[in-house]
DUF4191 domain-containing protein
Amino acid sequence: MHMARTKDSSAPKEPGRLKQMWQVFQMTRRYDSSAQWLMLLVFLAPVIVGLGLALWLSEGNGFTIALWIVAGVLAGLLLALIVLGRRAERAAYAQIDGQPGAVGAVLRSGLRGGWIGNEMPVAVNGKTQDAVYRSVGRGGIALISEGPQTRTKRMLDDEKRKVARVLPNVPITLIAVGHDEGAIELHKLPAALRKIKRSLTKPEVLAVSNRLNSLQSSLPIPKGIDPMKARPQRGKMR
């Protein structure tokens, strides 16, 4: 009993909410120097508006003036936190941009709007570490390449043909992530998926996802493989 209590007392404590927010702010400011000024701007704007409304509408009532100012401060804090969240997400993506598996990390944690993504690629070139990922949502199926388009275009086309054979009536969108002409930056991937025109209902999204997952064993990348450790297959010696 004493040993268990000692163990619990010696366990490191998780940082509090304010400390976590400060750490996020510090990380964001390190990778995006304009974030702090944008946060200050969106904080001050509602405060100034609240102060102006207080002087205009309160007719000298101190309590009403205080309420308007407090409302402005709270609105400013809310807007500043929204900006911090978006800029922090963008800064986090900037740290992994260009690394193998970056698209998978976004699909795992950054999708909204009913899109279902998997951090494991459905196709990968073990030599160059170029990869193709898949996501399913209301807009149909999105195939996303990671790597230079000169090398990944063929991979995307091959995966599109495979998926179209299984689900011929489901729209397929091809997206290239990178810095080539015609590609999108990593942090813009979630927004690009949300902009795809909706064509499936929620039950259909689930059915399509289950159908593709059931065929995962026949796709090039088995579930659980690490693309960093993948190697091109060699022919057997005779």
About this structure: The chain has eight helices and five strands. Residues 1-9, 218-238 have pLDDT under 50 and may be disordered. Residues 62-96 form the longest helix (35 residues).
